[in-house]
Amino acid sequence: MTAPAGNGPFAVVIYNHGSEPTPAPCGPPALAAFYREHGYAFFAFQRHGHAPSPGEYIVDLQKGKTRKDVIQLHELYNLDVVATVDWVKHQKWADPQRIVMTGISYGGIQTLLTAEKGLGIRAFLPFAPAAMSWNPVLAERLKTAVKAAKAPVFLVQAENDYSIEPSRVLGAELTAPSAAKVYPAFGTTHQDGHSFGARAKGIAVWSGDVLMFLQRVGVTDREIACRSRFPRKRLRDFGLPTSGGGPLGRGGSRCVFERVVINAVHEAQRKPMFGVVWLGRTQLRKKTVTRFGGSDQAPPRITL
CA-CA-CA-CA torsion for 70, 73, 77, 82, nearest 10 degrees? Predict the structure, then answer.
């Protein structure tokens, strides 16, 4: 969680990573910093099978599967996302009435599948959803999802993504205040365009539109002064660690990993996913802390 300054609870952006086997544990640094600077807590987690969360890796499971089977895998992994939303809502630092979800690539698919369920989330920001895996079967599934979305959706791509069919096809199903927008080419390659949503120079292009969209749907928080460091007293209030490394904001920040059991649904086994608490402005120092908690019936609470 990238904590902005202030007393909280905060509006929260939940981030869905892509298909990479080992996602950045704190999410894309530039993206986390952007939301923090605008008063949002940014929460990153890893679905099962994406290190360090144990389980079967979705890309391996897709080999030899039909397109319909692959969609069922996305639905299965969406259970991790649903459980994460429930967990975040029970945290002291989170305002459960002001949650936004975003994701890139496979994470964009997960964001749209979650939009169909709603879960009390106020807005959805899918970037390049299925741009590398677009096909008619997946297109129909995602069309169903956006038609049934329970909150506004703003779909974003760069013109030189692997495919802009997601924006063209899904955008046609969106009605105001939802929208899809294709921005000019970013960088020189398809991969550059695909990573448009997480790169600092890309964020500088789309940030104004996203902030305006979030303001229109009523989740922008204007009251947080983002330039001051996060108070240590409030860390204790929110149940987050305050020891180690000296005062926050002095000589850099640190990324504190909290290992928690968020989802015990898949494969009928208890398997931990990894949520991340990111304190400060930049990821300069890391400290690993292992915590387990919770039960199958209720979202876990981190015990310190």
Answer: 100
> Could you tell me the CATH number of the domain that includes residue 208?
3.40.50.1820
Torsion of CA 90, 91, 93, 97, to 10 degrees: -20
* Dihedral angle, C-alpha 289, 98, 198, 288, nearest 10 °: 0
C-beta of residue 184 within 8 angstroms of C-beta of residue 159: yes
Q: For residues 98 and 108, what is the distance between their CA atoms, to the nearest angstrom? A: 20
Work out how many domains the chain is built from and give that number. Answer: 1
Q: Does the reported pTM lie above 0.85? A: no
Closest alpha carbon to 254 in 230, 280, 291: 280
159-204 pLDDT, tens digit per residue, is 999 999 999 999 999 999 999 999 999 999 999 999 999 999 999 9
User: Which residues are bridge partners to 44 per DSSP?
Assistant: 15
Domain that holds residue 48: 1-304
